[in-house]
Amino acid sequence: MSLTIEDPRVVEFDVRTDEMLVNMGPQHPSTHGVLRLLLRTDGEICYEVTPFIGYLHRCAEKIGENLTPVQWVPYTDRMDYLAAMNMNLGMALAAEKLLGMEVPEKANCLRVMIGELNRVASHLVGMGAYGLDLGTFSPFLYAFREREIILDLFEEVCGARLTYSYITVGGVTHDLPNQIPIPPGLAALIGKSPNTKLSWMEACTLFLDWLEKRISEYHTLLTRNHIFIKRTAGLGVLTKEMAMDYGCTGPVLRGSGVDWDLRRDGDPFYTRMYQGYNFQIPVAPFKEAPNEALLGDNWCRFYVRMMEVVQSISLVRQAMAKYPTTTGTYRMPHKMTTKLPKNEVYLETEAPRGAMGFYFVGNGDANPYRARAKSSCFCNLSITEPMCEGVLLADIPAIVGSLDIVMGEIDR
Amino acid sequence: MTAEQIQALLQERFGDKITGGNMQAIDPWVEVSPSAIVDVCRFAKTDSRLLMEHLNDLTGVDYFEPDAAKQKNFGHQPHVEVVYHLSSYTHKHKITLKVILPRWQNDKAGELPEVPSVSGVWGIANWHERECYDLVGVKFLGHPNHTRILCDDDWVGHPLRKDYEFPLEFQGIRGK
Fold it and tell me: Into how many domains does chain A fold?
């Protein structure tokens, strides 16, 4: 007898239960923050999911209208707080495009280096938290052990561990430090004395060397884990058409088989930052996929992120190799009170969770007339409604978790 | 296709429904009359020359200067714009569409301006339009779920309007 259930609703027919409305969240551990899902359930089956958002709304756009772009940078940190560098970058680029500013080569090199390192940190959290959603605790601890070192490295560069405000209009706020104490986590892992002093780039290289070897361990822990495959492969299938219709971007879109990455296909103002770098864009379907996996399921989305970590590590290495030969300064002089021209600009950048768009309307004043942040998670979350129809209640955390949402970015 | 070609194509297909545009802007935009926006969007999405599968962003901008002393230098007639950023995965081109609306329907303060909803064209427009209604105060006709999305359901006013006044109290919580 086969143990697989073709359509779970068929079994339920014989043991019909009462319909029940269940509130999942806003304080549920597997909703990644303050997301509330209203579920209409019948027994174990969920027939309708309605997401409610806005619990973390902090009026970022209204605040942006009353500040100059430079002053708004710290507010963008708090949007996607797991990838604050990438938020800063998107906003800074949009403001620079409006002002017609050219950033020196050195600043661009630093932006690639730091932005990609933040992508690694963000995907590590995505991986760990997804394991947590599915009931395994250890990958989360390993992911945070690695992320801790990245945060230490960021702290040495800009002084902050979560809300960096490092990438700003005109470049970045600091150059790389020449001598730093080795991050304590890294010293313990590679068996060096905690009193070792070395340059930032040496510390980063040591860390990347160490991290690269660990990636196959994560695959053993999660990607090829039998239970993990059972919970993810073939579930939460998002078709290519639906992903495009619902404006999904980033790993969610690539997991559904659309070959689109703004670092390669985006606005020239953004893509020229990545000129001269070699990187691949992982797109589903994968030949490593388990037999049960379907195009656009939870497993594919997860695997896209895992593959992107490898690409980002290589990009950080390339940027570090390029850094000593770059010209110019790390920051252009830029007055905070520079008047914005009467024009408007919309620019999208590839943040770890998808395309983060910033829209500025200038009106001859130092403050933008309208500042808008279009969030990628906002679009990615909007597919939960059609995707969670008729799935088992236990699969909802698996599907929502695979979208890797951050509520700070959705509510802004 | 370049923005000029897209504008020419839309003009050829929709004639006087394309009411203007600016090709010199950083992001060139085409102005569409409110009644035709759904047809234009559907055409842009399905026509094989355009294939705008992706609605990058949909948002609103309120043009109004509440301060009488600054109105002289403001340079815009009071109006509300709904801005649609479209792009194509296939052709890798993009265009911005704009719909110009009065600040208030029939010049009655408090009556929201109306524009047909494009949520039938792109699924994501559903949430973007809800946000635009919530924050900017634009009514989308034919929207399947025309409710607020970020603010509370019983919130009064639309915060991104330039003459919005911050409430002194909301459900017993002091504001200022």
Answer: 1
